[in-house]
Amino acid sequence: MIEENIEFTSNGLKLSGVVGLPSDLKPGEKRPAMLVLHGFGSTKNAQNVMGPVKELGEMGYITLRFDMQGCGESEGRRGHLLCLDQVQNTQDAWTRLNAHPSVQASRVGVMGSSFGAAVAMYAGAIDERVAVVISSGGWGHGERKFKGQHHTKEAWRNFRNMLLKGRRHQHKTGEPLMVDRHEIVPIPHGLTHQVVHGSLQKFTHETAQSMMDFKAEEVIHQLAPRPLLLLHSSSDSVTPTEQSIEIFKKASAHADLHLFADTDHFMLAEGNRRVWHVVADWLALHLPLQAVTA
Q: Using CA atoms, how far apart are residues 256 and 286, in angstroms rounded to an integer?
């Protein structure tokens, strides 16, 4: 794969990205492409980004991975990640990738994991330019998701109290309360190695409130008739499986849902061949590689 470092502007900030070109791409040839979004406070170098980029490149697709604002090498306030800002980042990244001379115009999809999956679904639903959407371990209703992640009464009470404390702190000081990432999204010890070096460890309470209020399932019907692929572990230890099931119920007949028993939350980083066979077959049907020459 040939990589091109790029920058583009979103919300008045410079964002850093990398375009991946398949090694067999011929001069003047144009192909369909996929945006690959990273997860919560992560970067474009996370394994659940690099894994998909590698797989998609070997299939023959052009890719773009990038750091959301405030993450990685992109500009923006560290630890202040608002969902709708990331939706705008995704739309602007789509515009940048669609304009690449090797990309077939309007044949650009979006793929994401976890938080990135939620953003991908929302952006695809409200932006009719997006050709297809693939969600891995995504979520569609922030409040219900957080209830599932803080599954005891005490844990849920502590989470709600953190949001209240943050609002009071900001009212008193004019500054947001900074919160440890695991207070917002608990990750089992056995999966913490998936939190890549360079990921943010502290976030504003406003980040958590933004996620709490974010509800991709309320807009997902707008994606139809464009296709949606939902991938989820049947026993996800981070994002409750019911999140993808509820999205599927609301997404119309143009959605496909696959649950996998032999994976966990970071399935796109695990190299599971069963998962990638599903993705490859689905893309062959909904975003086929019909290369053209300019």
A: 11
pLDDT tier at 72 (50, 70, 90 boundaries)?
Answer: very high
Mean per-residue pLDDT, 1-22: 97
Q: H helices within 105-223, ranges in order? A: 115-126, 142-149, 153-173, 181-184, 205-213
> Which candidate, 247, 264, 238, 245, places its Cα nearest to that of 149?
238
Residue 45 lies in a domain: yes
Q: What angle do CA 168, 185, 148 make, to 5 degrees?
A: 100
Q: What is the residue range of 284's domain?
A: 2-144+215-293
Evaluate whether residue 26 is within a structural domain. Answer: yes
- Within-domain flag for 127: yes
Q: What is the DSSP letter of 238?
A: S
Looking at the 3D structure of the chain, how many domains does it have?
A: 1
Q: Round to whole Å and give the CA distance between 267 and 275.
A: 8
Beta pairing class for 29-37 and 202-204: unpaired
Location of structure tokens 């893309």:
283
Check: CB of residue 73 under 8 Å from CB of residue 226: no
Confidence of residue 130 (pLDDT cuts 50, 70, 90): very high
Q: Is residue 192 very low, low, confident or very high in pLDDT (cuts 50, 70, 90)?
A: low
Residue 170 lies in a domain: no
Q: Rounded CA gap, 10 and 19, in Å? A: 17
DSSP state for residue 69 in the 8-state scheme = T
> Taking the CB of residue 150, how many other CB atoms lie within 10 A of it?
20
